[in-house]
Amino acid sequence: MCGIIGYLGGREATPILMESLKRLEYRGYDSAGVAVLELPRAGEAVRTSVTKSEAKVDTLIAKLKMNMPSGNLGIGHTRWATHGKPTYVNAHPHTDCKGKIFVVHNGIIENFAELKAELEAAGHEFPSDTDTEVVPHLIEANYKGDFLAAVRAALKRIKGAYALAMFSSDDPELLVGARLNAPLVVGIGDNEYYIASDITAIIPYTKRVLVLGEGEVAAVTPLGAEVSTLDGVTVNPKIVHVDWDVSQAQKGGYPHFMLKEINETPEALANAMRGRLTDDGTVSFREFDVADKQLRRIDDILLLGMGTSRHAAMIGEYVIEDWSGIPARAEDASEFRYRRPTVGEKTLGVVISQSGETADTLVAMQQAKARGALSVAVTNVVASSAARDADGAIYLHAGPEIGVASTKTLHAHIVSLYLLAMRLADVKGRVSPERKRELVEALRLPVALEGALKLKEISYIHAEGTSGGELKHGPIALLDDQFPVIAICTAGTTKDKMVSNVHEIVARNAPVLALITKGDRSLNGVATDVFEIPEVDEAAAVVLNTVVLQLFAYHVAVKLGQDVDQPRNLAKSVTVE
Ligand code: F6R
């Protein structure tokens, strides 16, 4: 996830921006930049110095040290690419046509394409591929001598998610922050102020933090910080005292990244859908913009992945086949490459990889492509190898995942595959309800497999996932009072079958934790314990059940004192075969 820092005060801004960007590095990023409003020398006009690096913060710092901008107002950014590759031009800050307004942004602007077209028609020029760049131009278009008013007018036009820090060289004592669906705080020091996406950035400087609400704007001047709505109504700011150290702040107060990331699932799901799904159910993908005619030719879907991504592929297989009617198969990418599979020009290869760098998955995709398949990478990392090698990309926009075990990105993968299934169903002109029963049964199996994988990798307790139907064909032999079972019995057409399975399990003295739909009493007095999830559509239940299993694995591992974020023998990205 991108990181934001802004400073206004009596000290030199550049060293503070540099230190803060270093502290934001842990969030993961691909490029970085700062803009500092330089103190004018006698007779000179105010000017802004912009320094960027398309690589690491250390490179940026080296550049700044060679040519240190001097001024008391500045903004800085670490970019995690969402729209446009991680290049120098796409790095923030971005500016308007006159080079007066400077903006750094976290989030995704959903309607940026339409805003950009409108601004281009009015003569604005956009050197970058980013969604962010519409912000300074929109402010410029609304500027009539009052920067804050122009910011408010511009933000009223923007849909999506933003955390912004901005300034204009016409207002050298004004730093503005704004947020919607993305976090932003204002740090209050002694006659100095900070704007940050993350408390980590400012924790050594101040513990007094003003938390901006949704759709609020903070106007920071040497006299203080004033908060208002987009309509200009003054808001009483909420000031909190933060007592975290840097490591606690990086984890947002959670004890582990894994727990933090599980809790980021709602945001990850919203970001995966943002700007892709219209109210009438039409799906479009910006970086996988394939004409209906081309998609209509597809008669075979091949989903490739490893580990958790393979479980996402299995869920994708069932949903795509069921909704679109196109035969789909999920394959273990490491095995696929050693086969002579039937792949052709009517195949769509869907490559699923959080990192976009998993060696087995990349090789399997190359083989599918060599046989003529159209390919799309569903990945979290913009311009990763998978995204570059495939014909198109569907980016998760889940933000970096630091815990080795995949959590929120699994959910983002699942939702992205649902969207792809809807897109394919749409072009094929069908959504098939008739295979619902098989679908529900099928969807439960990857959830169970994933629950078992999570438990294995972080608590080192052996676990396996199986369908209810498969139980009597082998796994039931393992059961006794020392073999706890988690049964996924949430509402759906196979629920009654699962309830019968639980009776059979309990009859073998195995303790059962049943995941049930809220209010369901059918396992009262049967299951040892139940965990209720809300009543939701079966597709959504897949995500909720997985969250419960992730949390279960997490708490077991914590109780056993294991290293949850860095499990032994595992790497976040497996770049060797
Ligand atoms: C499990 C886990 C791994 C990855 C697998 C593929 O929690 O994280 O099983 O899912 O190594 O990685 P990506 O998705 O980066 O291709």
Secondary structure elements and pairings:
Elements: E1 3-8, H1 13-24, E2 31-38, E3 47-53, H2 57-66, E4 73-79, E5 94-95, E6 101-106, H3 112-121, H4 134-142, H5 147-156, E7 162-168, E8 175-180, E9 185-188, E10 193-196, E11 208-211, E12 216-221, E13 224-229, E14 234-235, E15 238-241, H6 246-250, H7 257-263, H8 265-273, H9 292-296, E16 300-305, H10 307-324, E17 328-332, H11 333-336, E18 347-353, H12 359-370, E19 374-379, H13 385-389, E20 392-395, H14 408-428, H15 436-459, E21 485-488, H16 495-507, E22 512-517, E23 529-533, H17 538-559
Bound molecules: fructose -6-phosphate.
The site of fructose -6-phosphate (F6R) has 14 residues, from helix 10.
